[in-house]
From TrEMBL:
Name under which the protein is recorded: Molybdopterin molybdenumtransferase
Leader peptide range in chain numbering: none
Species in which this protein is naturally found: Stenomitos frigidus ULC18
GO cellular component, one term: cytosol
Cofactor(s) this protein requires: Mg(2+)
Length: 428
């Protein structure tokens, strides 16, 4: 059995990220929220576009006002009013000023803004009551960004700030990576769909919903392929079909040592290379990872990269935990996001209650992360921590980690907690 860290690095090394040229689409800017930029963006515009005023006041020549004060004020002639969006028509000469509003273009000749509060106005005369700093409140052209330099880098996830920058730079259409298509299969004779009446022994296929939700949250497209019976031929066809349609395949169930756990044999029979059969993680031990030569774009002149297959354990909590710990990083890498964002987010937290493990596997215990006076605290979910109990997983925002070899962590101790869901942002 390999360690969690070994599995994580092996999985990441098996992922070939989308190619920015071959796996891109162009979207209208309002449709691009949450998508990943495929290619760097530069702008032909300087930001600010012109020297402009940061305040409402008067544009003056510093030399005229540098010595003034309330006791010895200086009076200047106002030659023009410059509202936002207006191109100044006149040059400010010695002894002159222009009335200017926030964001308006600086007139030629002026180099400094005196804020309105330090002036007195009478008709077309303004008296300056305090000496400003040289160049005060002038926002210089290109001070924020110089035309032609890199504006946004490839791999950035587009959220409101990036959308604002692209809009300001007049990028109405943006190149983004296409979303990975992730096929989801549930295996098991006991599984029924959400609307089917339950017979004795039946269980609703909740993993299909959970995994589709996780895939969508990760910015990919879930293909919900439904339930496959524990029957080798049916399973073989279903897996082959999933491999044909997707960039990544997730199945749940059928990966342990039971009589009807066929997944691993079928992956091998279909020509897959099995890289991982078990990981020292609880829950999630029988995680199976394989690669297949991709069949998605056979007509393409380039050989498509191999396709990743995750055989997740069927227990509902095991399926979710292995997704968060192993699948999500792989999806982030595949999606074109940069390396610092691939791995999960871990924080140090103080556990409010004692934590236990058998010490044989790295254990992930679900609960809630709270920020208390700027420090994280972890509260274990009440009730059973069986990997079959998905009920108390609801509301969880963190997974407390008990390392291999450790059987007891006392309440109040500092622990490592993996953030799940949107508890902590992945964006940077
Ligand atoms: N003798 C051993 N038995 C088991 C071992 C072991 O090492 N030796 N490992 C255990 C561990 S750990 C796990 S985890 C499970 C994994 O089992 P499988 O991946 O083979 O999953 P199944 O046997 O098909 O199902 C397990 C459990 O999960 C329920 N399930 C399955 N699919 C779904 C679904 N789509 N939605 C909701 N629930 C699902 C299923 O009904 C079973 O209750 O194996 C242990 N056994
Ligand atoms: O790994 Mo299993 O997921 O312990 O129940
Ligand atoms: Mg089984």
């Amino acid at each position: 059995m390999i360690s969690v860290e070994q599995a994580e690095s092996m999985i990441l090394s098996l992922v070939h990220p989308f190619d920015a040229d071959r796996n891109r689409e162009v979207l209208e800017l309002p449709d691009a929220t949450g998508r990943v930029l495929a290619g760097s963006i530069a702008s032909a515009l300087d930001f600010p576009h012109w020297d402009n005023s940061a305040m409402d006041g008067y544009a003056v020549r510093y030399a005229d006002v540098q010595a003034c004060s309330a006791e010895s004020p200086v009076t200047l002639e106002i030659i023009e009013t410059i509202p936002a969006g207006y191109q100044p028509q006149q040059t400010v000469l010695a002894g002159q000023a222009a009335r200017i509003l926030t964001g308006s273009v600086m007139p030629d000749g002026a180099d400094t803004i005196v804020i309105q509060e330090e002036t007195q106005r009478e008709g077309n005369l303004v008296t300056i009551l305090a000496a400003p700093q040289p160049n005060a409140f002038v926002r210089r052209r290109a001070a924020f960004y110089q035309a032609g330099s890199p504006l946004l880098s490839s791999g950035l996830r587009l959220q409101a700030p990036e959308i604002a920058v692209l809009a300001a730079a007049q990028c109405a259409q943006v190149p983004v990576y296409r979303q990975p298509r992730v096929a989801i299969l549930s295996t098991g004779d006991e599984l029924v769909s959400i609307d089917q009446p339950l017979q004795p022994g039946d269980i609703v296929d909740s993993n299909q919903y959970a995994l589709a939700s996780l895939v969508a949250q990760a910015g990919a497209i879930p293909l919900r392929l439904g339930v496959v019976r524990d029957e080798p031929e049916a399973l073989k066809q279903a897996i082959a079909n999933a491999l044909d349609r997707a960039d990544m395949v997730l199945s749940s169930g059928g990966v342990s040592v039971g009589d009807y756990d066929y997944v691993e044999d079928i992956l091998a029979a279909l020509g897959g290379t099995i890289h991982i059969r078990a990981v020292a993680v609880k829950p999630g031990k029988p995680l199976t990872v394989a690669t297949f030569a991709s069949t998605l774009t056979p007509s393409h002149p380039h050989t498509p990269p191999p396709l990743l297959y995750f055989g997740l354990p069927g227990n509902p909590v095991s399926a979710l935990v292995t997704f968060w710990r192993f699948v999500e990083p792989a999806l982030r890498k595949l999606s074109g996001l940069p390396e610092p964002t691939w791995k999960p987010t871990f924080v140090r937290a103080k556990t409010r209650v004692a934590l236990r493990s058998d010490g044989k596997r790295e254990s992930y215990l679900w609960g809630q992360l709270h920020l208390v006076d700027g420090l994280y605290e972890f509260n274990l979910a009440g009730g059973s921590h069986s990997s079959g109990n998905l009920i108390n997983l609801a509301g969880a925002s963190g997974l407390a980690i008990v390392p291999i070899g450790q059987t007891h962590i006392s309440s109040g101790d500092s622990i490592q907690v993996m953030s799940i869901g949107s508890a902590l942002s992945k964006a940077f």
